[in-house]
Design brief:
The complex is a heterodimer.
Chain A lengths: L5 H9 L6 H20 L2 H17 L10 H21 L9 H10 L2 H16 L2 H12 L4 H8 L3 H24 L1
Helix pairs in contact in A: 2-3, 2-4, 3-4, 6-9, 7-9
Chain B lengths: L5 H11 L9 H14 L4 E2 L19 E3 L14 E8 L6 E5 L14 E2 L4 E8 L2 E9 L3 E3 L6 E2 L9 E5 L4
Antiparallel strand pairs in B: 1-9, 2-3, 3-6, 4-7, 5-6, 7-8, 7-10
The chains are: A mainly alpha, B alpha+beta.
Chain lengths: 181, 171
């Protein structure tokens, strides 16, 4: 485990040590991957969005105003990449959970009912409006406060609260429909 | 059987918080891309190449990135930044945002929101640091429009071409 602070690594990268950026990739890959997967619904798009977010972060590293909070800055870039990728994907046929690797892993690690439950959640999540899904994931899965979400998304706190509430309501309805079907 | 109620939200969130690890090649692929970016200059495409099919916005956009010759802000960094004017003709647009690597590709920056000058002409002047930049216009928070008057960057971003801008580092 590399214990160097983000700010120190950023400084090293800016000084020309490109390889130091690999530490930041390893440090934030998993948490970012989770968000991208949930937001975009399939591994291929999530992989592409996350890779692009890291490359953009590298390109713009000199403009990271608070290197100590590199993770938050990277996450903002990722959120925007997911928005763009989601808009593009909306023009294609709708797919979700085209993730053979996840299916294989899940079938090995979880009982069938557990996996079915997870699949229902993913399907319900994919049914949410993108802005509601984004707000729900940031609030509950990433554990952000509304002020932090507002800073990250550029959306007002009241609007974010409304989106989260509607997302929760919609998820309850969708998952109840599945359970009662 | 699971019931959907308020306590179920916790179960949903718990499930969603499980890690979604990427394969072992991810880090290597990212670093390969980063090293490419670190060594490769921007490659430009002729601005006369045909517009891509996805571009359906009806507004006829013209224009220009005009650079003024003087720095506008005091301070070590700001002394180097140059005011750049971005202009887009988009009569039906409700909002136009300039988004590029100089603002982290973040459309939420209020200082990069173009103003409607009348007649469908949207413009913005912002200080841009010297160097090679990529950018585009985000119309109505949803439609990506490259500047038709500027060169395109060959490295297309998710199928959406960016415009290229070079700001000279002159005193």
């Amino acid at each position: 485990m590399d214990g160097r602070a983000d700010a120190l690594i950023v400084e090293q990268v800016l000084a020309g040590d490109v390889d130091a950026f690999a530490t930041l990739v390893a440090r934030y890959r998993d948490s970012c991957a989770r968000y991208a997967m949930h937001m975009l619904g399939n591994r291929e798009d999530a992989d592409e969005a996350l890779q692009d977010a890291f490359v953009r972060a590298y390109r713009s590293l000199g403009r990271c105003e608070d290197p100590e909070r590199f993770g938050a800055w990277l996450f903002r870039i990722l959120v925007n990449r997911c928005r763009t990728a989601g808009a593009r994907r909306a023009r294609r046929s709708k797919t979700f959970l085209a993730d053979d690797e996840a299916l294989l892993t899940a079938s090995e690690n979880h009982p069938a009912e557990q996996w079915a439950w997870r699949e229902e959640i993913d399907r319900a999540l994919a049914e949410l409006r993108p802005e509601q899904r984004e707000a729900f994931l940031l609030k509950y899965v990433e554990g952000m406060g509304y002020e932090e979400m507002a800073e990250l998304t550029g959306v007002g706190v009241s609007a974010l609260k409304m989106r989260v509430m509607r997302a929760c309501d919609r998820l309850r309805v969708l998952l109840k429909e599945v359970r009662s079907a | 059987m699971r019931d959907i109620n308020d306590t179920k939200l916790e179960a949903i969130v718990s499930e969603l918080r499980r890690p979604a690890p990427f394969d072992a090649t991810f880090d290597r692929r990212v670093m390969r891309a980063v090293r490419t970016v670190a060594t490769r200059p921007l490659r430009l495409i002729s601005p006369l190449m045909p517009m891509p099919r996805w571009r359906v916005y009806s507004a006829f956009a013209a224009v220009a990135v005009a650079m003024l010759a003087v720095a506008i802000l005091p301070g070590r960094h700001a002394m180097r930044a140059k005011p750049v004017q971005f202009v887009l003709v988009a009569p039906q647009a409700k909002t136009v945002q300039v988004v590029g690597d100089f603002n982290g590709w973040d459309p939420s920056h209020a200082e990069f929101a173009a103003e409607n000058r009348g007649g469908g002409v949207w413009s913005l002047t912002a200080p841009i640091p010297p160097g090679h930049h990529r950018y585009g216009f985000l119309v109505d928070d949803s439609l990506w429009v490259p500047d038709p008057a500027a060169p395109r960057v060959a490295d297309e971003d998710f199928g959406k071409p960016n415009s290229a801008l070079v700001v000279e580092d002159t005193p």
